[in-house]
Amino acid sequence: MINYKQMESKYEFDVYPKRPIALVKGKNALMWDADGNEYIDCVSGHGVTNLGHGNEAVLKAINEQTQKLISCSNVFFNDKRALVLEKLIDITPKNLTRGFLCNSGTEAVEAAIKFARFATGKTDIVCAMRGFHGRSFGAMSATFKKEYREPYEPVVPGFTFAPFNNFEKLKEKVTDKTAAIMLEPVQGEGGVNIGQKEFLLQVQKFCNEKDILFILDEIQTGFCRTGKMFALDHNGLQPDVLLIAKAIANGIPM
Question: 162 phi and psi, to 5 degrees?
Fold first, then answer.
């Protein structure tokens, strides 16, 4: 019998800690390893497989599309891309009228940082302590834990951090160079810390008054992972930029 754990360990440049099982099959909320042991999947691919493994509707859609067209450069128009954009605009707050499609959550964060600096002409972004936004250079610079940033310094300049759910402390970090405030409505890696409604609404109002972009990172919380389509729906938020990824395609790269 092939030892997949040994094989992967031999050839992979490993940067992530692994559990000592090799998963080979899944159905709905269950998974099986190479030895036939059954598990309840409480990881869900770090929040991507919100519809479960082997979902028939997802498999049908993938199968149909692979027989038509798997990839289409964005220098051409495309039927499915147009429909996806229309649907995203339909289900998100009405003030959001355009979508930018990229490859991952961390790339969405990178795009938001660039858009914020380009649109405002300012450089700095205020984020939350214990927040997590990704591992690429801009997203990592917006992430609070020193363990993510210090080995790769110098990181992207212009990022400061304020305590989550503390509006007065957050205001102190804002200067005339602040382009945006970027927050998660629920901090995921930071310990499942729920953003208080009053705090989030205060931040949104403050951003509107000061001509600062309010960026809401729903990469972890989007697509019904909090009981509504997006966590912002619990509080009636209308961010200037909404970041989504992970559960958008049930684990398929999109």
Answer: -125, 155
pLDDT range class, residue 108, cuts 50, 70, 90: very high
DSSP bridge partners of 214: 181
SS3 33: strand
pTM of this prediction?
A: 0.95
Report whether 166 contacts 172 (CB < 8 A).
Answer: no
Q: Count the helix, strand and coil residues of the chain and give each as a percent rounded to the nearest 5.
A: 35, 15, 45
Residues 78-92 have a mean pLDDT of 97
The Cα 189–Cα 186 span in angstroms is: 9
Do 128 and 144 touch, CB atoms closer than 8 A? Answer: yes
Percent of the chain scoring above 70 in pLDDT: 100
pLDDT at residue 190 is higher than 90? no
Give the angle subtended at the CA of 207 by the CAs of 188 and 118, to the nearest 5°: 90
Question: Quick check: 226 and 234 in contact, CB under 8 A?
Answer: yes
